[in-house]
Amino acid sequence: MNDIVLSLGDICKSYNRGKPNAVEVLRGVDLSVQAGELVALVAPSGAGKSTLLHIAGLLDTADTGTVTLAGEDIAKQSERRRTALRRRDVGFIYQFHHLLPEFSAAENIVLPQLANGVPDQGAGTRAAHLLDLVGLSHRSAHRPAELSGGEQQRVAFCRALANDPKILLADEPTGNLDPSTSDQVFDALMTLVRDGRLAGVIATHNLELAARMDRIVRLEEGRLIEVTAP
Fold it and tell me: What are the ABC transporter domain coordinates in residue numbering (predicted)?
């Protein structure tokens, strides 16, 4: 049985393509990620890791190459279908939580489910379950301003997983946290990913966190280089 959730083949991406000032960001990137596998993506700032995550998550398109998500060849899909796949199968986490300030922690997790057609009761049950997994059941009614930075980011993790995606893409998810809080938040992330048997690609500068994942890949000069597994 093929458990590959995401497959990128020969991905190339340039900005200002065809112009004298064109910048070639990705040069033939290949990457496959299986269900239950966490891959650390490490790269210097400006190397193109965010671009790669956006292509993998259907927020951007490659100039050339193939993207297969949950068995579907994205190049063959309409924009409407791409949007539906992104909502259903992809969870995003960013360095800053971007929670809606006027809503509680639970409501921030319920809202994306409602937008995806989940009934109110089911959405609330799912939110409560996720908050329990990350140790925040007692903070479910608090708004973001009433939560610490680490708590806010844990809520953001739960929101990213609200619709039970198949893959989680995270761009420096602990980059704005102190080392102790970063470890706690990463532990919560690991719990969520393992519990749901997701595929995950986590971009990070933190090599200690990268070493805790299943595999490390490094983006250098537009190409992915496999690093010896931790």
Answer: 6-229
